[in-house]
Amino acid sequence: MTDPRDLRVSDSEREHVVGLLHKALANALISLEEFTTRTETALAAITRSELNAVLIDIPGLVNTETVPDQRLELRSVLSKMRRRGRWDVPNELVLRCDQSWCELDFAVARIPYQLVKIEFDVRAAHVRLKLPSESALDATALQVMNCRYLNKVRPGPQPGPQFVLSGKVRGGTLTITRPVALRLGSVMVRFPLKIDRVAEY
Q1: What residue stretches are annotated with the DUF1707 domain (predicted)?
Q2: pTM (2 decimals)?
């Protein structure tokens, strides 16, 4: 019988562990140098025992289960749709908006994945994305046509989850921002003044 520790791990498991390491860094359980070293080890891990080795000395963070892939499709036609607060974010989102107003606020959402893919099928709609403070963004595969497009997220590596956008936005507006915020333990203070409790991943 194969020892569970010798089972090979998937990319989603590696990405989940990197997310746990980011949580440990945010809670001052490891240093930035340790975060970098352990992340490199996690991404190169082949077996579960190798992957768990980067978490074994951090209380409550041993990776005993795989985070399953999830897909969610959101639809809005001639209506208003909003997701905000501490909602559960899947690793794949499909956003279908037709002549609607749509807002996805990820600032304090629960995101157990290091990579979140969002596919757009948007026509003549007003769409706003609010990404977490330390997230990365890749919008190179997104097609924007006849649309007022405002992206306030600067490119570059970040320790938080990476959002990858694809699909088409035709007409309307698309605005992508990060909150102006200050994190105090489990509480995030956003400006204009708004206080949220930060989700534990």
Answers
A1: 7-59
A2: 0.60
